[in-house]
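$ ./design --mode recover --in tokens.txt
reading tokens...
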């Protein structure tokens, strides 16, 4: 983990990364690095963490978003934001891709990062598309 005093990763986020590693059978994991996923101030309501997981076969790069600690007045809007995004990744996009598969549609919009996990604790873990040329 970075030695930068401003940078920290929640226990919930690191636990979720461990679960993702286990669920994807990424063994053996040689190294896990956490570092800032964006510039300070880029996330209005969330913290962004980049994760690099090195296995004996590959490097997997993840992007974690999780809600910032905030005052009660902002909590309701943040919960709605995460609920909407989680709904998209857990329900809408899988249904969309399944529909396309059933209809044998090959040329369609699919520019959505892979979602590795969502959490009821307002954490979303995606593929880090920065390494695919998106910045």
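writing sequence...
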């Amino acid at each position: 983990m970075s030695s930068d005093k401003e940078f920290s990763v929640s226990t919930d986020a690191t636990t979720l990364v461990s679960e993702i590693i286990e669920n994807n059978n990424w063994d053996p994991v040689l190294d896990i690095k956490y570092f800032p996923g964006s510039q300070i101030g880029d996330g209005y309501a969330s913290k962004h963490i980049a994760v690099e997981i090195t296995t004996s076969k590959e490097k997997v790069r993840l992007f974690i978003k999780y809600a910032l600690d905030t005052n009660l007045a902002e909590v309701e809007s943040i919960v709605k934001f995460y609920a909407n995004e989680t709904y998209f990744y857990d329900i809408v996009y899988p249904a969309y891709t399944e529909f396309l598969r059933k209809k044998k549609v090959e040329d369609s919009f699919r520019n959505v990062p892979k979602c590795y996990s969502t959490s009821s604790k307002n954490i979303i873990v995606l593929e880090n598309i920065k390494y695919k040329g998106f910045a």
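exit 0
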